[in-house]
Amino acid sequence: MGVEIEVSDLNAWYGTNHTLQSISLRIPANHATALIGPSGCGKSTFVRCLNRMHETNPIGRVTGTVRVGPTDIYAQASPVEIRRRIGMVFQRPNPFPTMSIYDNVASGLRLNGFRNRKVLDEVVERSLQQAALWDEVKNDLKKKSGASLSGGQQQRLCIARALAVDPEVMLMDEPASALDPVSTAKIEDLIFQLKSQYTIVIVTHNMQQAARVAENTGFFLNGKLVEFDATHKIFTNPTDKRTEDYITGRFG
Amino acid sequence: MASTTTAMPPPLRARASNRFLRVVVNHLATAAAVGSTILVMAPLIAIFMYLLFKGASSLNLAFFTQVPKPVGEVGGGMANSILGSGILLAIASLMGVPIGIAGGIYIAEYGRNKRLANMVRFTADVLNGVPSIVMGIAIYTLIVVPQKHFSALAGGVALGIMMIPTITRTTEEMLLMVPLNVREAALGLGVPNWRSVLSITLRTASPGVITGCMLAFARVAGETAPLLFTAFGNQFWSTSVNQPIAALPLQIFVYALSPYDEWHRLAWAGALVLIVLIVVSVALVRYVAGRGVLKGAS
Fold it and tell me: Is a pLDDT exceeding 80 seen at residue B293?
């Protein structure tokens, strides 16, 4: 089941560049939350702070607290533990190129030392079903490389790979921006189904996408969270002038 | 679009002479490429043909089963040298491949912008340029002198050290070519960094790393100089790593310098066998390593 995420006074830097400035918000469990804003506003950095990926960058630095469920992820857990509980899907599909479809999905468990073949088979099938990819690949599971699939299939494979480790939260950093409209629709359907079981945070450039899939939306601008509210409120009656300007297309 | 149209060059029809020139240049470039290919392959083919011509007639079962005969006796073979080269290369690979790959992993994955990594890289480049005879003398001083005898171990270590720099530098280059998003995929799954480096990054880079290992292997397989004062050579059967041991390049060297025609013929045959064994082992490793590659894997 998903858990709530509570962020307070989060700051992030790349070198001396203060990318995120004092972000505080509460992301409810088992809902989809969209983050919108122009390029470079810090929304990707923000999701990378939620699973401690930001600090894998040698010049990345973070302060503040992030609670995922009961855990303060920066004070009470190692990055490795946290990333097992919080799955991530990246902007560009990134299956492991030397691995088969099966091995890609099983990789999260296998690389953490899990070997029981029967359970792995079940997990791989369940995850591919959840990611709506099973019917398309079930005959080539161990024959084809993950890299041989189409872009949209690769992205669903990456979602299946993230689901296979049974995370509590799914972070999606523009998961459909490299995909065609049909594949995008499939990913959106998936998000819709997955949010009953997981807390989903999705970064998107596409405001219609945010409106379609998310209950709540946050608007980032220049490293600050300008407004965070129910999606319909953000899109119909935003409180802040800057939010209104952005969603009506006056900039960005 | 109107502005870009006016900025375009005149229509191609107006430049018929250019088109003719383009076709000619195209053919010239193709011819240059084909010519270069032939030039690259010619020496290898010439050497191989000449070895076949000179050496094939001396090849028989005895060559692969017998040890060298004393001077004046006809026959004999290089069985002990073939085995000796195998043992020496096994020692060298056991030492050079793991150390070389580990060094490459350190430079590429852990030592970015660190002084130690730069030193390792610089040392590897210098080591690569050390003449092989110098390597032989160094190992003579470090292993043979204290032990007070020549040995297969000393020869294997000398060859192993010579393998390290090539393997380290290719491993580094190949690891750096693995895209960041593949590494991030592994880290994002909660895989510890060391595990991600070994199971994901190194595995993704493995075709190139294997090529580097084979290049290093093929290079030292034919080395004579580092073995002169280390493995020393041996006219008899020996499989002990603590005894002097025969090696194909050494035996070829000794036979080629001798005044006897019979030995000259054996030297040619030995050179042929050496080249064939190198080609076969490289091809074998490539085949075995390539078997696991899946459809569509890049």
Answer: no
- Cα B110 from Cα B100, distance rounded (Å): 15
State the Cα–Cα distance between residues B187 and A60, nearest whole angstrom. Answer: 16
Q: Are A83 and A49 in contact (CB under 8 A)?
A: no
Q: pLDDT of B39-91, one tens digit each?
A: 999 999 999 999 999 999 888 898 899 988 888 788 888 999 999 999 999 99
In this structure, chain B runs to a length of 298
Task: Determine the Cα–Cα distance for residues B194 and A112; give it in Å rounded to an integer.
Answer: 12
Alpha helix positions (H), B177-247: 180-188, 193-196, 202-221, 225-228
Cβ-defined contact of A98 to B203 (cutoff 8 Å): yes
The CATH number covering residue B155 comes to 1.10.3720.10
Q: For residue B5, tell me if it sits in a domain.
A: no
Q: Reading across the β-sheet that carries A86-89, which strands appear in turn?
A: A86-89, A169-173, A199-203, A32-36, A216-221, A224-230
CB A101 within 8 A of CB A146: yes
Total domain count for chain A? 1
Specify if B262 maps to a domain. no
Spatial contact of A227 and A57, defined as CB atoms under 8 Å apart: no
pTM equals: 0.84
Asked if the structure places residue B112 within a domain, the reply is: yes
Whether A252 is in a domain gets the answer no
For residue range A65-118, list pLDDT tens digits in order. Answer: 999 999 999 999 899 999 999 999 999 999 998 899 999 999 999 988 888 999
Q: Which domain holds residue A159?
A: 5-247
CB contact under 8 A, B196 and A94: no
How far, in Å, CA of B33 to CA of B42, rounded?
14
Cα angle, residue A155 at apex, residues A151 and A159 outer, rounded to 5°: 165
Domain tally, chain B: 1
B23: which 2 tokens? 């076709």
Q: Which domain holds residue B145?
A: 83-244
Instruction: Answer yes or no: do A56 and B200 touch at CB < 8 A.
Output: no
Question: A37 with A43: CB under 8 angstroms?
Answer: yes
CATH number at residue A171: 3.40.50.300
Closest CA to A198 of A98, A106, A130, A117: A130
Give the mutation candidate from A71, A73, A98, A104 for the B interface (greatest B CB count, under 10 A): A98
CB pairs under 8 A between A and B: 96
Is it the case that residue B1 has pLDDT exceeding 50?
no
Cβ distance A98 to B204 less than 8 Å, yes or no, reads yes
Tell whether B1 is covered by a domain: no
Q: ipTM value, please give it.
A: 0.87
Instruction: List pLDDT tens digits, range A183-232.
Output: 899 889 999 889 989 999 999 988 889 999 999 999 999 999 999 999 99
